[in-house]
Amino acid sequence: MDPHPKHPREKALKVNLEDTRYGSFAEIGAGQEVVRWFFQAGGAAGTIAKSISAYDMTVSDAIYGKCARYVCRERLESMLTYEYDLTLERLALDRGESTAFFSFANTVSARNYHGTNECHGWLGIRFQAEPGAQASEIIIHVRMLDSENALQQEALGIVGVNLVYGACFLSDDPDLLVQSLLDGLSVNRLEVDMVDFSGAAFEQVDNRVLSLRLVQLGLSDAAMFAADGRVLQPSEHLRKKSVLVERGRFRPVTHVNIDMLDSALTAMEAETGAESGETVAIMEMALKNLNAGGDVDLDDFISRAEVLEAAGHTVMISDYPEYHRLASYLSRNTQGRIGITMGAHSLAELFEESYYKDLPGGLLEGFGRLFKNKVKLYIYPYRDPNTAQLIKADNLEVPKPLRHLYQHLLDNGHIVQLERYNEDYLDIFSPNVLEQIGSGQSGWEHQVPDVVAQKIKRQKLFGYH
């Protein structure tokens, strides 16, 4: 029998009846939808020290300080810091020995009257796992998908209750806590595209694994983390920037992976005269490329994440097996240019009709979706291992009925051949390198960047022994 309730009223009541929990609620942007559940459940006096809605921008600035954007992580963190510190300042002396304090906060942009705004929100809770403990914190970002303001407010209230309940009763099982965030909701109403656990209760938590779990559980179609393992919220990280993506298995990341991304990045920035650093370069792993026998091998995933960290690039995990879906996702999160780099053999696969069997318009619809938002494909050459022929965009063989379409894409710059590449890397294939590492063969070190080789050896990744 599941000891944890699913309904928000039951969750709120259980928190209210837990006599060690006491704290504050601060909500901006969609009313006091979370704290309302706790008031309505009964017993709220045992839980709520304070409830506030600093809705006016001037009032909000006066309390939490000025902020460039009101619905952003920076504003949420200033709210959590202010409210948590104030709660301890006012109450810790009198009841600190028997009370685990918390402060919940959110800042939200629900659907406006004209329906023209981005509907999303930041929610967080800073709390003591037990009386006197050092603070722990959970921050999440949500996208609200309901078409009506009232329904969005309802969904926000429920996910907020789930977060508070999770902090109080599930902090020892972060995986279950993440699963519980959409209790009483569905992925059609709310998307959770970022979770970040930190502090005393979560010292052993790997936020990269939790990012993967968001995608596995269907709470989000994609998740991102930085080279140092910090989780990133896609729309905030990519906002107004150009984006370049390389898809791969990265088992492990090799010289050819790095050269492909660097070559495409150079070409993309040269087209606009952009300075280095103005384009976000992402190494993306599709969920289907992480599955092994129907499930994800977490040790293997961590190995890949570790070597990508050594390579120094932002990492994305997505549930977008098709490139046109990946392009649509990226265009939703930035108004900048979008580039996708791939080998010539992957480009050939894009011209297979079977790739688009789930689209009513087939291949033509797929290409229409792929190229509609300033998207370009940057093609890295491929050496055919059987003939030693160098395959590029200009000599790629596509099915005869599609040659006119292919030529159109080339002529209009939608497909760009990369001219800068290291021919010495073209014979490097990750599966061969992986086999050499696992079998103890020598020579694989020269096929990966030095920092990657050192990390594989030091941490004994990919079966190294």
Query: What is the assigned CATH homologous superfamily of the largest domain?
Result: HUPs
Strand order of the largest sheet: 8-7-13-10-9-14-15-18
CATH architecture of the largest domain: 3-Layer(aba) Sandwich
Main beta-sheet annotation: 8 strands, mixed
Structural class: alpha/beta
Give the class-level CATH name of the largest domain. Answer: Alpha Beta
Query: What is the arithmetic mean of pLDDT?
Result: 92
DSSP, total strands: 18
As for the CATH topology of the largest domain, it is Rossmann fold
List its salient traits.
single chain, 465 residues, alpha/beta, Maf protein, Rossmann fold, 2 domains, eight-stranded mixed sheet, 16 helices, 22% strand
Describe the structure.
By secondary structure, the protein is of the alpha/beta class. The protein folds into two domains: 8-205, Maf protein (Alpha-Beta Complex); 236-463, Rossmann fold. The chain has 16 helices and 18 strands. It has an eight-stranded mixed β-sheet, sandwiched between helices. It has a six-stranded mixed β-sheet with strand order 2-1-3-4-5-6, with helices on both faces. Helix 1 (8-17) packs across helix 2, helix 1 (8-17) packs across helix 5 (149-169) and helix 5 runs antiparallel to helix 6 (174-180). 44% of the residues are buried. The mean pLDDT is 92. This is Nicotinate-nucleotide adenylyltransferase. It comes from Marinimicrobium koreense.
